[in-house]
Amino acid sequence: RVFRFVLGIRKEPTILSKSASKVIEVAQVGAREGGHWCVGSDQILLAILQDADSVATKALLDSGVTFEIAQAQLIQFSEAHQALAAQELRNTPRTDRIIALAHAEAHRQKKKETDVEDLLFGLLQEDGGVAMRVLKKIGVERSQVHSSLLKIRG
């Protein structure tokens, strides 16, 4: 997949790695199965947690975030905000910003592809999303996940 930066940080296309593309696809499936009309930060968080081999997942696990804990919190949030499934699944504006921030992080690291850990960096920078509210409710601070991610990534 090729995405153009939403924030105008970079003009040329940036490619998601195979693992990051898979995370986005898993997030889309999760959104559709949950009856949502769009892919939000919450689906990205759950999709990252399902990618057992990624640095991002290891950082979340090191911070005490498991798929089961995050999913339980998201169920509580989603019960209040049930949405109907649309024909065409879209990203929320926040999800587009998360992907753009992930591309910016990959560019800063001088990488040719945006990977799963870059998606997590983007997710951590978008403070108002459901995913960050879930992490805060679990008792996990952004700085904790960020530090763990940097330590694991090296």
How does this model look, in words?
It is built from eight helices and five strands. It has a three-stranded mixed beta sheet. It is mainly alpha-helical and 154 residues long. Mean pLDDT is 82; it is low at 1-13.
Order of helices and strands: EEHEHHHEHEHHH
CA radius of gyration? 14 Å
How many strands? Answer: 5
Q: Helical content, roughly?
A: 55-70%
Mean pLDDT: 82
Short summary:
Helix content is 61%, strand content 7%. The protein has helices at residues 18-33, 41-49, 55-62, 67-80, 93-108, 116-125, 130-138, 142-153, and strands at 2-3, 14-16, 38-39, 90-91, 113-114. Strands 1-2-5 form a three-stranded mixed sheet. A two-stranded parallel sheet has the order 3-4.
Question: Which SSEs are present, and which pair or pack?
Answer:
Layout: E1 2-3, E2 14-16, H1 18-33, E3 38-39, H2 41-49, H3 55-62, H4 67-80, E4 90-91, H5 93-108, E5 113-114, H6 116-125, H7 130-138, H8 142-153
Parallel strand pairs: 2-5, 3-4
Antiparallel strand pairs: 1-2
Output the keywords.
8 helices, 154 residues, 3-stranded mixed beta sheet, mainly alpha, two-stranded parallel ribbon, disordered N terminus, globular
